Amino acid sequence: MGLIGMILAAVLVAVLLAIVIVKYLPLKLRWIASLLLLALTIFLVSKIYYGIMEPIHFNKQKVSKYSKVVENLKIIRDAQVKHLEVTGKYTKDKAGLIKFIDTAKLALTETRTVVVKENRGGGIIVDVEKRKTDTIGYESVSKYFKNRNYNDMFKVPGTDKEFEIETGTVEKVQGLIVPTFLVKTSKKDILKGLNESLVKQELEAIATDQIKGEYVSVGSLDEVSTSGNWPPSYDKKDAKKE
Asked: What's the pTM value of the predicted model, to 2 decimals?
């Protein structure tokens, strides 16, 4: 029974009780009815208060849980981006990606303009400017994950689950095949133990200020994207911390 149903039922009981008091209850026993009405009033007020506050508490708990999940997804996303820079592809090997952060080196490059002689034929030689890229050193990938718990990044906070990872490719333009990845976890697992009715509503969320759908995810298998499906408010929280 919903909140409105309980309120209507309580009002009906109060009306019936009032009728019984007026018509049938002796004066000396009406104090008992008064206590019953007082108890009914307290019950009704508590139910109204609970009905108003429960969604508010749920939203606070939801945001708190999602924030921790989103933080791990951001670490995984950044690791995948670095993996792509170094190897030219994404990976679904969880242990391998952690090891990659620990051991891989990222090339540092410098691009400059050089002038070269170009023979155009017929004895014509012209100076042509060209862009040249040189490797000037290397840096550890782990540098980009300092103070970030990447060793546990695949664990979904607050659950006994791990993130699901998929990789694939899409044809960005004709003839150009680009790698893609998707990392996700079910909202249902994250919100386990909270009000089932509110969880059900959350799984159907479509508002722009909410995490849409049944999953919290980053990346896409259908398009070239490293974005998450969370609203900007979750990124603003990180900006304030920094």
From this structure: 0.75
